[in-house]
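Lecture 7 notes: from sequence to structure.
We start with the chain below.
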Amino acid sequence: MNPDHAQSVVARCLTDPEFLLRAHDRSLSELSSEGTAEDIAAEMLGNSELERLLRFRGFITKVKHNALRRRIPATLGLMGGLGVELLFFCNFSQAYVSARREGPLDERTHLDLFSEALSGFLSEQPEQIATPVAETFAHELLLFDLGRTPPAITETEHMRWQGAMSLVPKTTDIIRISGRLGARDFTPLDVVVRRHTLCYWRPENRDSVSIFEVDALTAAVFVALRAGGGPEETRRMLAEARLSQISPEELRAAAVAAARRGFVELRGEWLR
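Predicted structure tokens for the same chain:
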């Protein structure tokens, strides 16, 4: 095998992820050679060299995702901190190159492609990796969506919500992870399991999204209030959620507090 042929095989491995994967599979196979291009690559390069090429191919794919680091820095940083980022991009390389054949991807399509690949990848990872990475990605994807799309305002005879709100249960302290990654002092010990609910709020006529933690009762009251009913209808919703212990006075006080914070404008029966 002359050097020019060897270089062409390596070049094909780096530019054609499907070929590289097939050659790698052949290098692991005990079946006799059939003389295909993949067989030749497997015999010429060997398993260890093909493994290095897979990692390098993954690194190339990782570099090509630098644009996404503006949108999902904590997700990619956490994957790196947990030691799975390069492995993910090795696995993702084939799908990414295939999707790019018709040209560059717009940001939303790129995120959707990443999301689909990440879901499959995490399904094969242990829970202590899969759960924090999945929750961190969901957190950053929601911030992207809330920041890009103007809030759809809910307005009824009883109230007017003055922005977009999402209430998301979490089992991992995403805010701690993001802070540590931002300060560049993250360690795997910063992945803290803690059940809580995050509230994401984007006021109308503003691009910024606020995030704060709420307790289970407050989250339930927000969900009931957001349905847009009057006091009695809202209490019925809470009773169906087994929160019938909330008195009319407590519910009205919670609604007034939400109004004072700018979440909602109260109308109708709430003002009587």
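Points to note: The longest strand covers residues 193-203. The chain has a mean pLDDT of 85.
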